[in-house]
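Researcher: I'm preparing a figure for a lab meeting and need a structural model of a single chain. I don't have an experimental structure, so a prediction will have to do for now. The sequence is pasted below. Please return the structure as tokens so I can convert it later.
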Amino acid sequence: MRNETIGIVTETKGDLALVKPMTHLNCDSGHCCQGEDVLKVILEMNNEINARVGDKIVFEAKQVGMLSVAFMLFALPLILITLGAMTGYYLSGKLAVAANTAAIVGGVAAFLVAAVVIKGFDRFVATNKSLRPVIKRIL
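Model: Understood. Here is the structure written out token by token.
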């Protein structure tokens, strides 16, 4: 299924265009199906057909593996925190530190690692041009 949406080009920057989404092609209403607040969003997308400011266009949003995004944001931190707490608890006997303290320190350290991994993933998605929506045609 193609995820095509209608929008208006508000600005162009070389091979990129800033587009204000309006409505889905199969939507009968005058607002975006995802809620009226989406109308305030401006999306940066690839402008392969050289649309100009003010053009009403159809663009296709690519599906970015929502399962992997959900895993990175929700499951990965929980898994790392659990492993960090278990590692801290295990090492507490060898380091002669209270088990609870070592588990907390291990969990916090693993949380910081998860935050760095998520930030790196965010930068990757933001800078990867192949993941941006693409303008398909001018209406």
